[in-house]
Amino acid sequence: MTGRIIQGIGGFYTVSSGGNEFVCKARGRFRKEKISPLVGDLVEFSPGAEGDEGSIEAILPRKNVLERPAVANLDLLLVTLACCHPQPDLLLADRLLVRARRAGMEVAVVFNKSDLGDAQAYARQYALSGLQTAMVSAATGEGRERLSSLTKDKVVGFAGQSAVGKSSLINLLCPKAQLETGDLSRIERGRHTTRRAQLLQLPEGGYLMDTPGFSLLELDTFDPEELKGLYPEFRPYEANCRFLGCNHVGEPSCAVREAAEQGLLSLERLERYTALFAELKEKWGRRYG
Fold first, then answer.
1. CA atoms of 188 and 214, how far apart (whole Å)
2. Domains, the chain, with CATH or none
3. What is the pLDDT of residue 189?
4. Residue 21, SS3?
5. Residue 68 pLDDT > 80, yes or no?
6. What's the confidence (pLDDT) of residue 196?
7. Integer Cα distance of 128 and 114 in angstroms
8. Residue 206: enclosing H or E segment and its boundaries?
């Protein structure tokens, strides 16, 4: 049979197939081949006899993979931020966007708690980059229709800081999920109410994936000159840069920076890009050390 892994706990995987769920273990050869099944994987499996676990026989080719959060075959990754409590970590959001784009995923940015902060000011930075955005309040239901239109009939993952309300947004879209939610701790860092990735089926079609929140995320090591290609908003301006191969990190007569200074691009996002470029350049220089 074929199905999709919707949860994995301690070496046991729940596989959804034909409206039913089956608990399976992975064949030992996966460990020898250093392959780990991931939530979101499409698999071939043999269901066990009544009361027994089945076995995952093969993992079908993946269209994309993220290592953190560890998921596969997403149609859309929703990078989720809160307008306040906690303050939005836009650099962390940009790291997630870079990772997702390198993995070939469609991305969008969601701002929760829009009733408590100025969502428009933050969203404008990403709207200027051509990214889809949504302003939502899980508490009031505002923006539910916009969020629902983004997720309909897709396999969608929520990822971002702890306590931004990912679980609350999933509960808003899928009330039967009844995921545990939590508040900020005393030191303004979110408690991890989600401890593992899991897929939840939407009533109107598609799946939602809740993932554990985090506060730190490093980029993989890759040639820093690849980074600008993961910022599609740069492309309309790059041909006008003075230097062929301009990386937009301080070179003279850089058309991308000029566009940002004119308000055509987000200057704040360009500054964060510059910081990520410097980080990658250092890591790339140390890769043989």
1. 13
2. 2-61 (2.40.50.140), 66-210 (3.40.50.300), 224-285 (1.10.40.50)
3. 40
4. strand
5. no
6. 67
7. 19
8. none
